[in-house]
Design a protein that fits this description.
CATH architecture of the largest domain: 3-Layer(aba) Sandwich
CATH topology of the largest domain: Rossmann fold
Low-confidence stretches: none
Shape: globular
Strand content: 15-25%
Largest sheet: 6 strands, mixed
Mean pLDDT: 90
Number of strands: 8
CATH superfamily of the largest domain: P-loop containing nucleotide triphosphate hydrolases
Length: 227
């Protein structure tokens, strides 16, 4: 009788896959599996393929992931409230969404306001996005992903515009709210602190894939050389 625990199911999987960006091959011969419950950091220099890999992951499960892109695509004329609420549009009817656009309803406020508070945006909740700093806009983008209440979070440099202390707190919040997390990160210390697995990209390939507990910052520094 085999008493070994059953491994968690694979949520994402590639087998010798070539991944492209705008028709150009960026990552070659990618073989990769990410299981439910993992917290994965994608590490590598600019142009290493982190965004391309995230895009390919998202395409495998477009309807089941909360997505936080590097360019948030917020609507400047709308408030922080409305930009966060946009993440939940598909959960409600068109008339309900239109009413919230005119005047936020109590039910919607009861969902958005706690998220804004966790993100430190309660004072800016009804300020238009164009009045917010870059860091506040990035936190709004995170809020738009959190409100989707999905088990999987994919983030492309989701805390690049906030300071180190705020960034780590936001990453921990993201991990608390999602079962599985995959993040493209530039900050090595944040990656080692928050994630349980590190995938290193360089020269169009995965060159490192290891548990974070087995790595130190010095092991990752070489990933930022010229590629």
């Amino acid at each position: 009788m085999n008493d070994s625990p059953t491994p968690p199911p694979a949520l994402f999987q590639f087998r010798q896959k070539s991944l492209q960006y705008e028709g150009r091959s960026v990552l070659d011969n990618v073989s990769l599996s990410i299981a439910a419950g993992e917290r994965v950091a994608l590490i590598g220099g600019s142009g290493a393929g982190k965004s391309t890999l995230l895009k390919a992951l998202r395409e495998q499960r477009p309807d089941t992931v909360a997505w936080c892109p590097q360019q948030p695509g917020l609507v400047p004329i709308l408030s922080t409230f409305h930009n966060i609420y946009m993440g939940a549009l598909e959960q409600h009817s068109l008339p309900y969404n239109l009413l919230n656009l005119i005047k936020p309803l109590a039910g919607a406020r009861s969902i958005v306001e706690p998220i804004a508070q966790q993100l430190g945006l309660e004072q800016q909740l009804f300020s238009s996005i164009d009045k917010l700093s870059g860091g506040q806009q990035q936190r709004t983008s995170i809020g738009r992903a959190l409100i989707q209440q999905r088990a999987i979070f994919l983030g492309d440099e989701p805390v690049a515009n906030v300071d180190e202390y705020q960034g780590e707190a936001l990453l921990k919040l993201i991990c608390q709210r999602h079962q599985t997390v995959v993040l493209a990160l530039h900050d090595i210390i944040q990656a080692l602190s928050v994630c349980t697995r590190i995938i290193g990209l360089q020269d169009g390939a995965i060159v490192l894939d290891a548990p974070s507990e087995q790595l130190q910052a010095s092991d990752l520094a070489g990933l930022y050389g010229a590629s």
